[in-house]
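Follow-up to my post from last week.
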Amino acid sequence: DQQVKQNSPSLSVQEGRISILNCDYTNSMFDYFLWYKKYPAEGPTFLISISSIKDKNEDGRFTVFLNKSAKHLSLHIVPSQPGDSAVYFCAASDKGGSNYKLTFGKGTLLTVNP
Amino acid sequence: GAGVSQSPSNKVTEKGKDVELRCDPISGHTALYWYRQSLGQGLEFLIYFQGNSAPDKSGLPSDRFSAERTGGSVSTLTIQRTQQEDSAVYLCASSSLPFGVSPEQFFGPGTRLTVL
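User reply:
Got it. Predicted complex:
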């Protein structure tokens, strides 16, 4: 049973516009949510995170919104740039003791067209 | 090194052979994780190390999979009698404890394993 779901396998956006990537989760014990970006043949790189006690976190062009009641989060990229084209993974952490293992969604391929 | 390194970057093996995958975490990081990504899937947790101990091995798919960590640093993931379904990218990540703002993990570039 998938605990973290990214229902859109791909998204195409025009340069300069907003990209919105969505993520749903089922486990109410998740206490942190993270977004990772992955280019081909590279490991994922951390983008931004949000604690379950917050509803918004912003870092430059990237903003993550968390709606706990809906068990939904989204990543907004404004303005989108061609270099943002990559696979974006949503991940969640369930602190069992001190083990912060991450549960990942399947990813969304973002293509930003010039 | 500055980041997490993994070797080899690519490994092609025949069904039934054993393989060893290596991970060098960021210096000083006490926590180390192994994940794998099969085609079209997200990253799947395999095992977690805190120092040299593995308190969570719940993600290892079968007893053909094992891992160890020595000196609180390098880790080796071993797959015995490989099967075609083991083909995937194996990713290692490390992090420092206690955490600061978020449980961020730093990933290596991965080892692409192909079992023929």
